[in-house]
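Students often ask why inverse folding is considered easier than folding. One informal answer: many sequences map to the same fold, so there is more than one right answer. In these notes we will look at a single instance of the problem. The structure comes first.
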């Protein structure tokens, strides 16, 4: 029997299995998925593409989908119905397969955006239960997902549970009714969560459609203005990721200042207005952690509004982007009496 946590985010899939050790199996890849178009089948090189056969369809995922599919051919990861959909499940099965989980019984926990949790967690949990069959990159899968408590969690709150588990001071604050706040900066969204006594404070938990994609879009607009080069979002995202050395019009360019300006525009106005409007004076009584893939960029500007906010240190466990999935595994194991290393 296996145990795994898989976070099929709007921008990236993050997953971990077995336990919380440094060497525990973990994977991450872009949340890009779409059906293999008929015109590609039989073409030169197409037979070598790693595909996934699931639900009577053939899918490309991750980097392979980025390279071979156009924007209109990939699933929309931003819609309210994304979590639990068939393409979402395709990505989840790939993550399990790459961690060596392809047969037998599995304890699984996953996450959804805060805005989707209340209305959708029961339906998503129900769709996960039972047997699933697929062929992932040539490897047959036949596994059964077991029923467990808290199989579906809000992504932002999940990160707080792992942060607390690693810090005795945070546990003491929580046990004495203090507030632990988290800001989870993702690719397309940023989630806000607050715990009191280890339980979510629901009216202080929310989310906003602002993340590193907003930054990339702004950087793309600046590049168009400077160089006359039109970029789609995925091209702009790659330039943000490789910002220190980008090849444009025959020269190497450092886009760090463009990225910083774009982050400031996203954070200083709409994001912080939303957070301050939600938390208000309660923020003065919080310990605030910033985590997620975009946390290193966003944190300095968040600290201008909340000086005590801190970047959650995650140098040894895959970085802050893995914090929510580590929290999911921590919380799920505790609720279900399972031992994880």
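Output (designed amino acids):
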């Amino acid at each position: 029997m296996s145990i795994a946590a898989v976070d099929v985010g709007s921008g990236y899939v993050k997953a971990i299995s077995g336990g919380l050790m440094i060497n525990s199996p973990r994977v991450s890849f872009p949340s890009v998925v779409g059906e293999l178009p008929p015109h590609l089948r039989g073409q030169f090189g197409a037979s070598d593409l790693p595909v996934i056969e699931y639900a009577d369809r053939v899918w490309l995922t991750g980097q392979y989908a980025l390279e071979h599919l156009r924007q209109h051919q990939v699933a929309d990861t931003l819609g309210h119905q994304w979590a639990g959909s068939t393409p979402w499940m395709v990505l989840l099965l790939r993550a399990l397969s790459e961690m060596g989980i392809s047969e037998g019984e599995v304890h699984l926990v996953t996450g959804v955006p805060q805005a989707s949790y209340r209305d959708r967690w029961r339906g998503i949990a129900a769709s996960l239960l039972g047997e699933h069959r697929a062929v992932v990159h040539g490897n047959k899968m036949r596994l059964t997902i077991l029923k467990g408590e808290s199989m579906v969690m809000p992504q932002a709150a999940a990160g707080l549970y792992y942060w607390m588990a690693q810090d005795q001071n945070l546990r003491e604050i929580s046990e004495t009714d203090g507030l632990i706040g988290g800001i989870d900066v993702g690719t397309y969204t940023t989630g806000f969560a607050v715990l009191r006594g280890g339980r979510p404070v629901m009216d202080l938990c929310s989310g906003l459609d602002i993340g590193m994609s907003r930054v990339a879009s702004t950087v793309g607009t600046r590049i168009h203005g400077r160089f006359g080069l039109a970029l789609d979002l995925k091209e702009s995202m790659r330039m943000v990721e490789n910002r220190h050395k980008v090849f444009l019009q025959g020269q190497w360019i450092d886009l760090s200042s463009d990225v910083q300006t774009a982050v400031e525009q996203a954070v200083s106005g709409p994001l912080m207005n939303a957070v301050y409007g939600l938390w208000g004076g309660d923020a003065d009584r919080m310990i605030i952690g910033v985590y997620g893939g975009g946390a290193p960029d966003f944190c300095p500007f968040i600290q201008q509004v909340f000086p005590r906010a801190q970047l959650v240190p995650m140098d040894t466990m895959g970085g802050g982007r893995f914090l929510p999935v580590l929290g999911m595994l921590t919380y799920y194991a505790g609720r279900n009496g399972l031992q994880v290393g």
